[in-house]
Amino acid sequence: MDSAAPYLTGQASASASGQVLGLVLGIVDMAGWAITYWWVVALAAVAVSATGEAAVRHLARKASAERMALELVPSRHFDPALEEIFRRGVQLARASTSMPWWAPRRSKTVQIRLRADGSSPLRYRIEGPAGGERLLSITPFGPAVTVNRARPLFDKPRDHVVRAEFILRGKPTAPLREVPLSPDPLQPLIDAVSDLRAELGDLAEIRLDIQRAPMWALRARRLQLMSDARRAERREAQRAARWARHDATGIEDSLTWQLQQLVAGKQGGSGRRLVMPPVPRRVDPEEALGKLAEDDHLVRVQLLVMCASNTEGRAEARLAQLQAAFDVFGGGSRWAMRGWRIGPWRFGADRWPSRRGFERRWALGHSQPPRPNWVRLEELTGLLKPPTAHCRLPLLAGDLPTFEHGNPELLLQGTYRGPDGRRRLVATYAKETLFEVGVGKAGGGKTERALAQAISWAHAGGGLMFLDPHRDSWPRALPFLAHDHLMPRIALIDLNASGPAPQLSCWNPIGMHQGQVAHEVVEATADAYASVLGWDDATAPRALTIFTAALTVLVAVNETACQAGRPEDQATIFHVRSLLTDPVFRTTALTTVEGRLDEETRSWWRTVFPTLPTDAFAVVLNPIARLAANPVTRAFLGQPAGIYNIRAAMDSRMIVWVCPGGNGPTDRLVTALLARDLLRAVRSRRDTAEDRRVPFRPYFDELITLTGAAPETIAAMFEDFRKYKVHVHGMTQLLARLPIPVRLSLIQNASTLASTAGSQSAIAPITAEWGDRPPADVVSMLDRFEHYMSLTVEGRRVGPVQITGPHLDDVFAHYARPGQANALEHAAQTTAGAAPLAQLTDRAQSQLIRVSAFLTQHSSATQPAAQMQKKRNYK
User: CA quadruple 253, 256, 259, 265: dihedral positive or negative?
Assistant: First the structure.
């Protein structure tokens, strides 16, 4: 048995060697077959690869079908902190994994879509897995950003489309440039699409896909980078050693070194000295790996861009603008367009073979960048949030409508100059422009803009009232209103009485021939006097009581005259003096209207009035005496049945130009009467259904003058008129000069807030409403006719934006009819019932006799009937 063991051992060794030899021969035979039939192997590999890719694409397409979209709408004051933006990036990265386990990696992505198509400067959308909707709906930005569920977007085919894919180039471990948050990092991208024109089919869209970096690929990349760094360090050490030996050899062979050896007596010494080569430095992983050293908050991104237009060349130009915008983010690495250029041709995402893959990724939202664009979330700060308060947004046609002549739905605002230099007339919607305020120095263009707006509104069929104490606006507007279809609607109430034969209209503030309500007329007139004279229940209770009681009687007299068919016998405001100081007139008047007065009023006249001293009437009669001393105001207010009727003017879309004539005490009193009558007339529209109220626009030039006469009245207008479809436009040089109630109502309710140049202190209250963007020093340096204004369009505020005020000679040159200006002025005076001043003065002086005669006649006719009624009541 012992002798057979070596034999068996040798036999086993021979068998194993045979098996190894057979295996080697088999492998050689197989390799030979594969070499011979290489095409079979290639076909099999292609088939396996194609089958695998088809299966992966099917699963990815299935996973992508279950995606959601959110649109983020920032507020005007959205100003996030870096930490908030970083947390949003973490949310996006986490949401990219909210997919089924079987979903391929290419579909595990969250997409940021920045889109400009003319509807807004830059729409910011987030698209991602349906499972990540809850995570993405609640943002760290808080209420400053509104998150809305977005619908799918469908684009019409454009004639010209260009595509591009951007990849990171430069040092792969270096970060992008750290872009500050102010100004907004999105500003270059928004500037690149600011001249987009929707009517030409312009469209630009940027898509940034974010997904978590695959660990296996990241580790492989780190190993590669470390190996490259070590090889580079070894090469550097070898190069340094070569240069050290070269330098040592050069030194020993030099004449200077040989002389040193002779002097030192070492010429017989040993050979060349030993040079120690430098040792390669230890490679620092953080230095070699850079931003790839840590796993935390490292993502892989894909950046796709598409631009389109129906006009040749605009899409290509837009892509070039966006490419320049992405250069702002360039640092150690930069965004560069993938592809190469040969002469005038560029081979990239627009050409074979890249185009098909680009369109597939674009349509399905898959992320398959050709190279791993690894970035840290801090590098994407500028793209992880919507535009902030530090972003200057362009004004698109969708933000502010383009003005159309003759369109009653639009209200002219001025000329806007776009980023591309194009100018267009812009407007707001008339139904939304409730109140406007214009501030700025004299001559800055406030009145010119208001005139342009009023003229355009008049030509569109709207009614208005232009109240100008200085009358300068009337001759300026005259040539542009001198049209045959406008003349019947225009009335001129001019109290300046200029020229050799002045024509003047007339108005009876307490007249009842136009169907007014008696107590409203009394209240309006009394409040107007109290406003100008500073009367109130604390400072002048007796004056208020006396004046109100007198007005009550005179209004009752007028009501009686109108019912008797004798409106020409109505009393005027000047009959207050006769009522208080003439016992005969007072007795006749009280007897005539006794049945129209309530018991309290009759009792006051019987018991209280006789106890009043004579000097108690002076405070009431003094302002009336001043009105009577002025022939213009005496003629204007002293007529029994005036033509002026602002309520009828509103309802019939009249164009009424009122020029009170100055800002003296008497003028302020007339202005207060007009303003209070306007307030009464507007409030009387409560008797008309809301849908039947005709829009009307009063324009108040020189608010300082007007509010000096009626501050509470003007403030009430800005508070109440919206309900009755009456929209006030006010202009002033200084807000600080306005009474506090007026100033507060103006700022609170202004749909449009505009400012021209002026002192910084005067403009500061306006810019403060805009958050000092722009600051007061910028607005104060505006050129003439330039305005900064904030406007209201579709319920949201637009601006402040710089707009050039319209100049009548430019915007309405086609409306100018200077040859018909005289005809219009004559027609406007005729419509207002103007008559020669002398004629009206004579009529006003004789009115007391007419009223006294009417009262005597009427009281003698009614007295027997009253006595008979008393006897019947006694029986």
Answer: negative
Is residue 427 within 8 A of residue 620, CB to CB? The reply is no
Q: Which residues contact 141 (CB under 8 A, 6 or more apart)?
A: 74, 78, 80, 84, 88, 385
Bridge partners for 306 per DSSP: 163, 205
Is the pLDDT at 252 greater than 70? The verdict is: no
Helix (H) or strand (E) holding 359: helix 354-364
Q: Is the confidence at residue 307, as pLDDT, over 90?
A: yes
d(CA 426, CA 411): 9
- Establish whether the linkage from the previous residue to 695 is cis, with ω within 30° of 0: no
Is the peptide bond preceding residue 100 cis, with omega within 30 degrees of 0? Answer: no
* Pairwise CA distance, residues 804 & 785, whole Å: 6
Burial class of residue 747, CB neighbours in 10 A (0-12, 13-18, 19+): middle
- In this structure, what is the dihedral angle of CA atoms 814, 816, 820, 821, given to the nearest 10 degrees? 160
**pLDDT band, residue 865 (cuts 50/70/90):** very low
pLDDT confidence of residue 162: 92
Cα separation, 85 vs 607, whole angstroms: 80
Identity of the amino acid at 17: S
b (16+ CB within 10 A) / e for 650-670 = bbeebbbbbbbbbbeebbbbb
Global pTM?
A: 0.76
DSSP assignment of 182-219, as one string?
SS-TTHHHHHHTTT--GGGT-EEEEEEEEEEPPHHHHH
pLDDT in tens, 640-684: 888 888 888 988 999 999 888 766 777 788 888 888 888 888 888
pLDDT of residue 596: 83
Q: φ and ψ at 203, to 5 degrees?
A: -150, 135
Q: Pairing mode, if any, of strands 463-467 and 655-659?
A: parallel
Q: What is the DSSP letter of 480?
A: H
Q: Is the pLDDT of residue 6 over 80?
A: no
